[in-house]
Write a structure and sequence with these properties.
CATH class of the largest domain: Mainly Alpha
Shape: rod-shaped
Number of helices: 5
Largest sheet: none
Number of domains: 2
Structural class: mainly alpha
Distance between the termini: 47 Å
Number of strands: 0
CATH topology of the largest domain: Four Helix Bundle (Hemerythrin (Met), subunit A)
Length: about 260
């Protein structure tokens, strides 16, 4: 197959582009793996954090709605308390259905008994005001027990929030580390591709320039009258054709010089 200089240069350029494309593809694939893995961590973490936040919000909203009912004896407040309780149960179920660590389960087990007592007190206060609407003292006395129980429930909730915050910070640190690693790998692959391109270009340029240098020396020798060294074509491109042409010129000049010598 005959390779022209343009073809060789095109091949070299295509090889460099191929190396760059491969390096870009590898970098993109690695980045995708990193962000997909990090994304799974985020997807697992943030729903549990949202559910935990809602648990805390609705736990205190239930208390406020029940106290408002006791003080106002407005059935709408009691309905609000029921809706808040449903939202609390829904978020608690969502939270417990997510992958939780052993430490988290230990905190939840401590959380369950006082919360059950918390709801029992609220239900008792509501029942007391329904049975005797004119006597607030019994209901308020029951609600006062919530203040003592609050000191038991709040620290457990705070521990859960702190635990999730620590987990989130770990996740962020891991994501940052993975991103830095991904950037380093991408930069390394890019540098390797550039170096490989330079080396390939250098070797190809050297390979192409060597026969030109040899032909230049051969042409100089012929110009000085040295016709003894035959010029051979080592490539099948334009340089090879030039070598053939120089060899024809050397042969013609040598024959012409021989004819002149014989005439003398």
């Amino acid at each position: 197959m005959k390779w022209t200089i343009g073809g060789k240069l095109g091949m070299a350029f295509a090889s460099i582009l191929l190396l760059m494309a491969i390096s870009t593809g590898i970098s993109t694939y690695y980045n995708q793996l990193v962000f997909t893995a990090s994304g799974h961590v985020v997807d697992e973490q943030y729903p549990s954090m949202t559910a935990l936040k809602n648990i805390t919000i609705f736990l205190y909203k239930i208390r406020v709605d029940n106290i408002n009912y006791v003080l106002s004896q407005n059935d709408e407040e009691l309905e609000n308390a029921k809706k808040s309780r449903e939202e609390y149960d829904r978020n608690l179920l969502s939270y417990l259905s997510l992958p939780l660590s052993e430490e988290e389960w230990q905190v939840i087990n401590k959380f369950s008994p006082p919360v059950k007592k918390y709801f029992k007190i609220l239900d008792a206060a509501s029942a007391a005001i329904r049975s005797n609407p004119d006597d607030l003292s019994a209901a308020l006395k029951i609600l006062n027990e919530l203040e003592m129980l609050k000191d038991e429930v709040e620290p457990i909730l705070e521990n859960l929030h702190k635990y999730k915050e620590i987990e989130t910070n770990k996740m962020v640190d891991e994501l940052r580390t993975n991103t830095q690693t991904s950037s380093t790998v991408s930069l390394t692959i890019g540098i390797i591709a550039i170096i490989a391109g330079f080396v390939l270009s250098f070797l190809l340029g050297r390979r192409m320039s060597r026969p030109i240098v040899e032909l230049t020396k051969a042409a100089d020798a012929i110009s000085l009258g040295n016709f003894s060294n035959a010029v051979t074509a080592k490539t099948k491109d334009e340089i090879g054709e030039l070598a053939i042409a120089i060899e024809r010129m050397r042969t013609s000049l040598q024959k012409a010089m021989d004819r002149l010598r014989r005439r003398k």
